[in-house]
Hints:
Elements: H1 3-35, H2 39-49, H3 55-62, H4 66-78, E1 82-87, E2 90-98, H5 100-121, H6 126-152
Antiparallel strand pairs: 1-2
Helix pairs in contact: 3-4
Amino acid sequence: MSREDVEALRARVGHESQALQAAVDNIDQAASVFLGINRTDLRCLEVLMQGESTPGALAAELGLTSGSVTTMLDRLAKLDYVTRHPEPGDRRKTVIRITPEAMNRAMQIYGPIAEEGFGEISTYTAAELNLILDFLTRSRQLQERHRARIAALPRP
Length: 156
């Protein structure tokens, strides 16, 4: 493969990566509308789909203040999307969990995507999956580094 062909391929990978980000963003927008919540609330539910959390951990994960997290959790609790429970080992702490109703609604959105995606990815060999995993990991790390860089820029 010529140097020009490799450069053209790199450009296509870059274009498809950007197009993938836009497509995911569009799914998130549609999911927010379907659930009747804003994008930050959706991100909170995505975190809670992975397991319970505390308000402090949610604040750190979402980049919010404690007051903003409290307001967000109040909104989500009012919609019956989250519940608050005292932590068994330390009753001063609160554990946040996604409700079965919210999980069911989220699975209406994300379940078919995951199912179809699993079918798509099942055609790859272990070596190809390792290469894809490496690319995705490096891409995520790149985004995380630059999010931190952007957050540190002086504001106009």
